Prior knowledge:
The protein is of the alpha/beta class. It has two domains: 2-130, Nucleotidyltransferase, domain 5 (2-Layer Sandwich), CATH 3.30.420; 139-365, Phosphoglycerate mutase-like (Rossmann fold), CATH 3.40.50. It is built from eleven helices and eleven strands. It has a six-stranded mixed β-sheet with strand order 8-7-9-6-10-11. A five-stranded mixed β-sheet has the order 3-2-1-4-5. α6 runs parallel beside α7 (226-239), α8 (262-268) packs across α9 and α10 (290-307) packs across α11 (319-330). It is globular.
Amino acid sequence: MKVRIEADGGSRGNPGPAGYGAVVWTADRGTVLAETKSSIGVASNNVAEYRGLIAGLEEAAGIGATEAEVFMDSKLVIEQMAGRWRVKHPDLAPLHRRAKELAASFDRVGYTWIPRTENGHADRLANDAMDAAAEFAEPDPARTLGHRSPAGTETPAGAAGWTGARGTPTRLLLLRHGQTELSAQRRYSGRGDPELTDVGVRQAAAAATYLADRGGIAAVISSPLRRAYDTASAAATALALDVAVDDGLIETDFGAWEGLTFGEAAERDTGLHRRWLADTSVPAPGGESFDAVAARVHDAQRRIIAQHAGQTVLVVSHVTPIKTLLRLALDAGPNILYRLHLDLASLSIAEFYPDGAASVRLVNQTTYR
């Protein structure tokens, strides 16, 4: 299958709050097959552009594309990926290598420069991500990670935007666990219990340092699985807190697909795998459905809010539970599960207000500086 990838990235300050966006189209640009965006903390324009390219290639590979045409308005990235310009900056070298590794998994990848006016979809996604990066990187002094309004007062205007939400929200910092061998190989990893790799340990340590520097976290709650618990423990140690475990935060039970790649599972159970992707009520063979996951995660959310109302809580979990919590905050349908992308050790933020309102403040931050 041949696809068209459009990617963009940017930084407000260069370096400054940065983000990227990428969209995968059918070859005729008639249908969007996948899209992704993410804030990446403080970074340069060129780093953000490369991150957008990498995300686009990953999304294309994830849907089974074999050929891709990449279109970007970054002359530097296009010329370096095409081999016409050398990569000189040390910050770009590892990103260039990663992009080349991903491109090598396709039968063919072409690179074309386009003006910014022709890259509007990816540019919009990147700007959304930069908005989130700027809000989190430079918060209002009255709205830091751990801010709580005085008892009996309302959240300051702007903390809930124009929605009119009232009261002090419970802020959930949603941290995905670090890398394991299965996640590095992009295999289904549900109830299995692999440990963190050396990379995963470093990811957990970086996130822990970042969170400890900001403080204001009242509790750390984790999935019972080792990869999440060890990630949570790193943060809890830095914060001088204990780790509480909530079984509702455990990853999806993928049943017979545990340890398989997307392609292997699709080949093993072609019809069922297709139905499972299209219908959240369909369980994996011997496993559970996304609807079942949503029910237990919702119960966990209610428990956390009841126990820590108005506080900031670090929740360390897995892809599906975190996506589900974001879905609850957005009051979105089940299809959003397939449109959110969460990297390893990524941080997202959702707030839940006493009046039932909610907001998402951040999605998929992965740069901890």
